[in-house]
Design goal:
five-stranded antiparallel beta sheet; mainly beta; 8 strands; about 60% strand; Immunoglobulin-like
Length: about 120
């Protein structure tokens, strides 16, 4: 399986009602769309996230699947899920990788490009 056959898109949203600036708690929702543009079915087995706040503090999150699932994605289909990330600064980033396996039992990693977590209006 060619890892370029998996496309990752991420949308983020700042959750003001769950955040608390005084407690340095900034909550962001993110929705990931994993699209299989290849010719083989794939299954997402693991995830690894690197969450970095504006101070450079990095937190690594590893685990099986995403939000309790290890989805199978057929060619031409996609899987979408939403989750939360909490950081101690109003700006940060996330990036990572998914460990996947294709229908021919070949394991591979798919990079999740870096994306920004930012409170609205904080950057300009």
């Amino acid at each position: 399986m060619n890892r370029q056959s998996i496309q990752i898109d991420v949308e983020t949203n700042y959750l003001a009602d769950q955040s608390d600036m005084e407690d340095q708690r900034y909550v962001f929702a993110y929705t990931v769309t994993i699209r299989n543009t290849g010719k083989l079915a794939v299954q997402l087995l693991t995830r690894c996230w690197l969450v970095t706040d504006a101070g450079g503090k990095v937190r690594e999150i590893r685990g099986d699947g995403v939000v309790g699932e290890q989805p199978r994605i057929r060619p031409g289909e996609y899987h979408r899920y939403s989750s939360l990330s909490i950081i101690t600064t109003p700006v940060g980033t996330m990036e990572g990788s998914y460990g996947m396996i294709d229908a021919e039992d070949e394991k591979f990693l798919v990079s999740i490009p870096v994306f920004r977590l930012a409170m609205p209006g904080i950057l300009n």
